[in-house]
Amino acid sequence: MVEVTETVWIPMPDGTRLAARLWLPEDARTRPVPCILEYIPYRRRDRTRIRDESMHPRFAEAGYAAIRVDLRGTGDSEGVMLDEYTDTETQDGVDTIAWIADQDWCDGSVGMFGKSWGAYNSFQVAARRPPALKAIAPVMGTDDRWLEDIHFYGGVLAGDNFWWGTIMQLINSFPPDPAIVGGRWREMWRQRLEAMTFWPNQWLQHQTHDDMWRRGSISEDYSDINIPVYFFGGWADLFRDTPFRIARNLKSPLKILMGPWAHLYPHEGIPSPQVDFVAETLRFWDQYLKAVDTGLMEEPPFRFYLQESAPPAGYHKARSGRWVEMRDWPPQNLSERIFYLNDGSLGEFAEPGDALNIRSPQTFGSAGGDMCSFAIPGDLPADCRIDAAGALCFRTEPVPEPLDILGQPSVSLAISADRKQGFVVVLLVDEAPDGAQSLISRGFANLMHRNSDTQPEAVIAGEVMRIDVSLHGIGYRLAKDHRLMLQLASAYWPILWPAPEAVTLNLSPGQSVLSLPVWQGGESDPRELPRPGERPAPRRSCITEGSMQRSVTTDLMTGEQTARCFIDGGVFGPVGRVRLDDTGTEMTDISDRIYRIHPDDPLSAAASMEQEATFERGDWNVRVRTSAKQTATATAFLMEATVICWDGDELVFETSWQHEIQRNGM
User: Fold this and answer.
1) What is the pLDDT of residues 188-231, one digit of tens each?
2) SS3 per-residue string spanning 195-213
3) Dihedral sign, CA of 114, 117, 120, 126?
4) Are 564 and 594 a contacting pair, CB within 8 Å?
């Protein structure tokens, strides 16, 4: 039996109280147990309730207290949230752990886990070394907020800075639940709304690697982490490089598991195969919170899924492949294979020749999908042939035997440009015998950051530069008779925001190289990972079916291209209107994301997002509507956004923002 407390209040030293949901083994109050903490802003009472119940009750069944805490200013917690990963958030996490350790149901040992935001603050809180925190299990998060986050990719402004910022614009507008906080819910709601800012603006104020991004990046000093870490990630997720950095730099006990998954917990993982995340982490928690020798850490610490070649598709339910494991990173049986970028070919030897040049259309990237897949149709990269005409293309001969790629490929380019500002895009592609082109990995580099990511330097037109591009980590088997292909481009919309002017890149054949990490470990026979078992059906009812539209269209009269993603249900897909059976709350979440650009004009780029969400239960009827738009001139980014909130038919709050941010090497 598990004892569930819908809301417990955790007092912070300044008097603010954080709301939490608690699961306890039935005898925990007389026989204290370790506690497992998840600490995120996504509303434990409703928005993550179903997901939480796939994990936390199972931890309690296994003899742990499990607690799911709303960050300050989110869900039903008091106070306001002014940004992601603030010092206040981290300190609240430290104080929460101290409170947990002091409860009569806790034996003084705490573990912490979370996906995405929860992975970030698991690292960040652990770096503060709270005495009761004994181990962490981050899932799909980063050690470095500048190198690997939704804001900048390779020092280039990411479209996701706008998109994810608008998602948070909506979430930041949500009220607490009156069933939990009582009649003061409107007062708490107004306090949040009046403190709101438009986060994409404040993030875009920091266009270089400054203290904003160093805050909360454990890469600044890996030695701050002195407790065991079990990191989980996925090749279809955004955070694919962190495992390789922490494998090289963390000195505390470490395990890494990288599957084929999108931005989902492994037990929900798509593409499959799925792994029972709870069962796997229980071996970790038992080892470090209960001092039970589970044998987990005697196994090779690094396990990666090597995906087989697959036809390009915007969605994969499953990926064939195999697990490989190793005791060291990098392992001895990982070799570097060099290919020279010759005229149209990737060769073992340099072949100098006449200069090659490319000015990509601003629409290059339309087949790119999203940088971070949520396992919904259309968010994985499509056939790279769609864009290939806008790039310089280099190919190997068909490989006579399968080629296993594991780690981070890289490219070193001898390149020049005809504008003072621009970037380079590198796509590593699997070309099948029938010509289909599947993306393996990709990487980007801001030319103005070639010497420093803190002091951008203008490009000198025509001057040859050495630009090193690190591609995202991957585990991938290139099939026999397939070709390895490299595409080189100067635009990548809408994943990257365009440079102010269209840029022509020039490359001399034989002077640039692709470095490929090739796994030569052969077949291995690792421990079979636990598969998710049958669990009770979620206590959720579908009121109306959701829908989704995703398209890229071209206006044949003007040439303008429009990419649209409409979802009735939220970022995880067309869920529609749902009712939580336990609480009676009904919810909706509708978004309409549109990107527009003309192939010849980078200043025509425009991103917009319209969203609406509701919460209804009895006489509680809340509706929130947000809108946002981003454009740019040659010298500045322009942003405008609105938030409108209703309680029933009553307009409760309305605000708007307009921002102009000077471009700084972007």
Assistant:
1) 999 999 999 999 999 999 999 999 999 999 999 999 999 999 99
2) HCCCHHHHHHCCCCCCHHH
3) negative
4) yes
C-alpha–C-alpha distance, residues 304 and 324, integer Å: 5
Q: What is the pLDDT of residue 523?
A: 61
Residue 187 to residues 176, 192, 512, 620, 652, Cα–Cα distance (Å)? 10, 9, 61, 15, 11
User: pTM for the whole thing?
Assistant: 0.97
Task: Give the C-alpha separation, 280 to 259, whole Å.
Answer: 13
Report the pLDDT value the prediction gives residue 469, as an integer from 0 to 100.
98
Cα(301)–Cα(296) distance, rounded to whole angstroms? Answer: 8
**Secondary structure in 3-state letters for 348-384:** CCCCCCCCEEECCCCCCCCCCCCCCCCCCCCCCCCCH
DSSP letters spanning 48-86: THHHHTTTHHHHHHTT-EEEEEEPTTSTT-SS---SSS-
- Identify which of 411, 286, 395 has the alpha carbon closest to the alpha carbon of residue 343: 395
Task: Report how far residue 230's alpha carbon sits from residue 138's, in angstroms, rounded to the nearest whole number.
Answer: 7
Looking at residue 604, its amino acid is S
Would you call 395 exposed, middle or buried from its count of C-beta atoms within 10 A (0-12, 13-18, 19+)? middle
The dihedral through the CA atoms of 441, 447, 448, 454 has a sign that is: positive
**Cα–Cα dist 259/268, whole Å:** 12
Q: Residue 98: pLDDT above 70?
A: yes
* Closest of 166, 167, 184 to residue 175, by C-alpha: 184
CA-based nearest residue to 103, from 24, 218, 200: 24
Q: Which residues contact 598 (CB under 8 A, 6 or more apart)?
A: 362, 558, 559, 560, 561, 604
Structure tokens at 579: 């009712």
Termini Cα distance of the chain: 56
- Contact at 8 Å (CB) between 111 and 67? no
pLDDT at 13: 98
Task: Report pLDDT for 524.
Answer: 67
Instruction: Using CA atoms of 388, 393, 399, 405 in order, give the dihedral in degrees to the nearest 10.
Output: -80
Q: Answer yes or no: is pLDDT of 238 > 80.
A: yes
Give the integer Cα–Cα distance in Å for 105 and 84: 31
**Of 304, 303, 234, the residue nearest 262 (C-alpha):** 234
Of 193, 173, 182, nearest to 17 by C-alpha is 182
In terms of C-beta distances under 8 Å and separation of at least 24 residues, what long-range contacts does 120-123 make, across chains too?
120/84, 120/85, 120/145, 120/216, 121/39, 121/40, 121/85, 121/89, 121/90, 121/93, 121/216, 122/39, 123/216, 123/218, 123/225
The DSSP output letter for 496 is: B
Cβ count near 146 (within 10 Å) = 20
Contact 500, 385 (CB under 8 A): no
How far is 332 from 323, CA to CA, in rounded Å?
A: 18
Closest by CA to 518, choosing from 347, 652, 392, 404, is: 404
Q: Which residues of 183-212 are buried (b: 16+ CB within 10 A; e: fewer)?
A: eebbebbeebbeebebbbbebbebbbbeeb
Tokens of 576: 């529609």
Q: Facing residues of 258 across strands?
A: 233, 304
Handedness of CA 266, 269, 274, 279 (dihedral sign): positive
Residues comprising the chain, all counted? 666
CA neighbor of 582 nearest in space, from 26, 44, 2, 46: 46
